[in-house]
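Colleagues,

For the teaching module next term, I've prepared a clean inverse folding example: a structure given as tokens, and then the sequence designed for it. I'd like students to try predicting residues themselves before seeing the answer, so please don't circulate the second half yet.
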């Protein structure tokens, strides 16, 4: 029996295990609802602050680029100061920043708060999985990890859904205030409920080993392709969700913000496909699954070109289903391929993933402004085709 299966670790069925699951599920919900609640508000923010559609994507893009940078360093900081303290600090900080952004509706201040929200979100995103690996019995890690990831996906969906529905009845400031208060309650619950670390050992931050791990991962050509896939996948996904709301408030759809928020239920397809991707990879191979999902994202994008609300919804459902399965496949492949430096490999993948969200999520807005939905869809299709082409470099990689 491995040391991680010893009785000192938290095992399935125990009250501590239930507390860990519920706490981390809430944490995942909190941080990603905070991150993505601004997405359905983009048209409203554009009107309120008198800015362009591209500029209205900045609150999300600034948060995700700050998250990308934070992911590289937060795990290292938690090695020194502990897992639970960093996560607690992050959750309370996110709540306070949301409340500040609601009561100080000045564009420059709003953007600054969104940058700090991204940085603080990284405190949970980078540390939660490490906490699970240290504290949970080895045979139960997969189940605990899966529920945490479900919490992040449901949080992303709920942030969009709650904000999208609320802003049709109340101001965006009031909606943000409600989400901030909800997250403050979650942070308090998390502080009292999550068991303290028993297996954490603090050690000094070792920059030499940190840099060595980065060099090792970046020297692997197959890992570089996987990092690029993360950039492409998230960049395309966020681009579609960012500007689809603008399309749906226009003719021929002319939907209210409530219904635009409701389309976030397509995330449920991703919550299903993400864990299923592992079984498909074992059966067909990771390369085949990744390529198939990129192709299905293209198919979903084509369906969304039609001026039929039903076809747009089906297309978005396929697009979301395929995105989550592709992301799950690529991220697990990184863990297999990076071997000795898995933690840094995962950090680099997530860095590229959120960098894609920031850079493509905002820059594609310029295409939306100049060429509308057809132009944006054409650009996203080209990027996905490049992803398919670059994926050929993974054919000889170990598929696990």
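(Answer key — instructors only)
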């Amino acid at each position: 029996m491995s040391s991680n299966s010893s009785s000192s670790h938290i095992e399935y069925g125990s009250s501590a295990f239930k507390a860990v699951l519920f706490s981390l599920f809430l944490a995942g919900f909190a941080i990603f609802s905070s991150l993505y609640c601004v997405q359905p508000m983009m048209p409203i923010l554009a009107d309120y602050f008198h800015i362009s559609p591209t500029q209205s994507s900045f609150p999300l893009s600034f948060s995700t680029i700050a998250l990308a940078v934070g992911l590289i360093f937060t795990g290292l900081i938690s090695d020194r100061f502990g897992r639970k303290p960093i996560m607690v600090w992050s959750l309370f900080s996110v709540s306070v920043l949301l409340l500040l952004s609601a009561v100080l509706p000045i564009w420059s201040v709003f953007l600054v708060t969104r940058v700090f929200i991204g940085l603080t979100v990284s405190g949970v995103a980078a540390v939660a999985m490490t906490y699970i690996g240290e504290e949970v019995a080895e045979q139960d890690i997969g189940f605990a990890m899966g529920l945490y990831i479900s919490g992040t996906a449901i949080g992303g969906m709920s942030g969009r859904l709650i904000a999208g529905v609320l802003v049709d009845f109340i101001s965006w400031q009031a909606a943000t205030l409600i989400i901030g208060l909800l997250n403050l309650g979650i942070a308090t619950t998390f502080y009292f409920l999550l068991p303290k670390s028993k297996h954490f050992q603090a050690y000094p931050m070792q920059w030499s080993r940190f840099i060595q791990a980065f060099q090792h991962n970046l020297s692997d050509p197959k890992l570089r392709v996987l990092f690029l896939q993360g950039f492409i996948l998230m960049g395309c996904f966020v681009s579609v969700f960012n500007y689809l709301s603008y399309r749906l408030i226009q003719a021929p759809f002319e939907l209210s913000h409530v219904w635009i928020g409701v389309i976030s239920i397509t995330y449920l397809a991703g919550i299903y496909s993400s864990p299923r991707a592992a079984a498909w990879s074992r059966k067909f191979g990771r390369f085949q699954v990744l390529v198939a999902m990129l192709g299905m994202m293209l198919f979903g994008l084509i369906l969304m070109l039609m001026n039929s609300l039903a076809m747009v919804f089906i297309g978005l459902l396929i697009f979301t289903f395929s995105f989550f399965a592709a992301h799950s496949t690529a991220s697990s492949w990184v863990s297999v391929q990076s071997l000795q430096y898995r933690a840094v490999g995962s950090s680099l993948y997530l860095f590229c993933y959120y960098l894609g969200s920031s850079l493509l999520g905002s820059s594609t807005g310029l295409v939306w402004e100049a060429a509308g939905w057809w132009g944006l869809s054409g650009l996203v299709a080209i990027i996905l085709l490049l992803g398919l082409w670059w994926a050929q470099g993974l054919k000889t990689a170990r598929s696990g």
